């Protein structure tokens, strides 16, 4: 599975469990503009930590927070590389 | 029989934490006790407890960079974490005006910062699994006054504010967050207090005696149990009526 497909699968599972309706999950989708709220986001971070053993948000500045789905995937890709190094 | 559920109890090498660990083990949980070092009292309690129900992991909780690795190793060795009891704390007394800055900062570090970060890492797994129990050990000194304990009191009050708001955050996911507020309990933390002061507190309490570590442990065990499924964001005082 690619990083993108893992993240998309988790977002789909979380939104299904919490009755959220989402627009198509494209790379330029702005997460904050959807029903994917802060609690959903916290769940995503928890589940991604389970998969990858990394949490890129522990040490991040607000300015670096991902805006779009594409940014989020890129952030996790970088974190996974840094963790493997 | 289903697998026992894992509960982390911090500061469980002695005092109230050890009583909490023994009580939870007797109630069928798998307890992971955390402190800087184990103790004879803990080893004796683990031997007396049901086989495999009490485990020890050494960690200095004041080293906040050790908290996430600690949570990871508990999950690897003992499975998903169902409960967390934030009990470890120090009670350094001192008049604020003359307290060394590092003593103030050590109190806040271990009593407030460490439980918040530990909870952050533990609660994620609970959120993902849709169930969990968090119990924060506060103190009646969080809401009554006590000479020479202002910094300690502030750290214990912080646990109550933390409890209430966090319960709102995670309630939707089936996780409860509560606090217990013990009154004066005889442990290593309070051994510096003189006998007459102890008697004075006992005499003033509604029940004319002091609560002991097992009383606090029973309150915690209730909040961790399935019976408390509809109790969250609350503070349970265990003080033999000293603040009644
Ligand atoms: N006793 C009372 O009258 C009373 C009243 C109200 C509330 N409380 C609260 O009850 C809780 C327990 O108090 P207690 O009286 O049982 O205290 P205690 O007998 O002094 O035990 C404290 C426990 O915390 C551990 N601990 C201390 N520093 C630590 C560190 N840096 N990292 C990891 N573990 C550490 C200790 O083990 P190590 O030293 O080996 O690390 C020990 O297991 C505290 O939250 C306290 O505020 C107590």
> Describe the biggest sheet of chain B?
7 strands, parallel
Beta content of chain A comes to under 5%
CATH topology of chain A: Non-ribosomal Peptide Synthetase Peptidyl Carrier Protein, Chain A
Helix share bin of chain B: 40-55%
Largest binding interface between chains = A-B, 11 and 9 residues
> How would you spell out the order of helices and strands of chain A?
HHH
Helical residues, percent of chain A = 40-55%
Give the C-alpha Rg of chain A.
12 Å
Radius of gyration of chain B: 17 Å
Structural class of chain B: alpha/beta
Give me the number of helical elements of chain A. 3
Overall, the morphology of chain B is globular
* Overall pLDDT of chain B: 96
**What's the arrangement of strands in the largest beta sheet of chain B?**
3-2-1-4-5-6-7
Q: Which series of helices and strands of chain B comes N to C? A: EHEHEHEHEHEHHE
Specify the number of helices of chain B: 7
- Kindly state the mean pLDDT of chain A as a whole number? 90
- Let me know the largest β-sheet of chain A: none
InterPro entries (chain B): NAD(P)-bd_dom_sf, Sc_DH/Rdtase_CS, SDR, SDR_fam
Protein name (chain B): 3-oxoacyl-[acyl-carrier-protein] reductase FabG
Family (chain B): Belongs to the short-chain dehydrogenases/reductases (SDR) family.
Protein name (chain A): Acyl carrier protein
